[in-house]
Design a protein that fits this description.
By secondary structure, the chain is α+β, with helices and mostly antiparallel strands. The chain starts with 7 loop residues before the first strand and ends with a strand.
Length: 300
Amino acid sequence: MRDVVKMTVRMEPTKEQVSIWIENFVPKKDLFFVEEKDLDSLVEYLCEVLVVPGGEFFKHPSYKQIQLVNSYMYWNISSKAQFVIVAKPDWITNLPEQKKRDIVNIQYKMNRGLILPLSLFASASSIPQEYIVEENDKKFFVIQRSIWNRLSYQIKERAILAYAQQWDDWFGIDFPEQTPIHIKKYANKFPMESGSNCLSATLFAITEQDWIIDEWVHPNTFLNGLERANFSLINDVIKKGDIITWVNQNGVIKHAAYHIDNNLFFNKNGQTFFNPWKITDLNKLNEEWYQYKMKVYRKM
């Protein structure tokens, strides 16, 4: 392959995207992850909520919505979480102050999402102390819908932009001239909604179906898509239009990207709206997914 000049570009979400992020980042229903013993201390305050056993919660279609999964970061939640309290936003605001502090501290210990460093917020004085947890001289804001609504737009905007850059850097490679038109439409841009992941981005690249890019595609669906598009596993050096996947020791695909040409790829890391579709190179991809085995698919 010939060497090409790679121009780094900085991405930024639009004002409209930031506004949508702010509105959707904190779900409209509060979830509190607790142990059974925690319920005993809250028993007199549980008449207006749902208390869902953990095993039932994580299988329940209502609670598997992508934005709930991303915001509360289900994949990080402690295995000690035996129950989930599902509540309206005003439930926590009506608890006695000490009960608020107790349940907020429990959420921190459960390692759920929506817990941000207090340093991301321009005016910490606007955040009630009972929503702040301190550990090892660091302070964290445990966010719930009611308190999020009370913050000014400017404070939320600054915080969410800083937080977004913890998920993914805002730098990509300017797309090469030979990039297909349908990919140029999305390259080095942020999505409006959660859901799109590496697998949907890759299937979009080979099918040119815009609606697919917003889907949350899982590995077997992805493999079915490759088969229907006449892509087959090969043992060869990569060429223009190939798809590279990274698989674990059980053969499960953990990541995929579409090869535009000259070791430049159309890629998306993660399924949040903080992860942009971007042009990246093979070296960067291998750095990020080095622990997995690389497999190449080509259209036959």
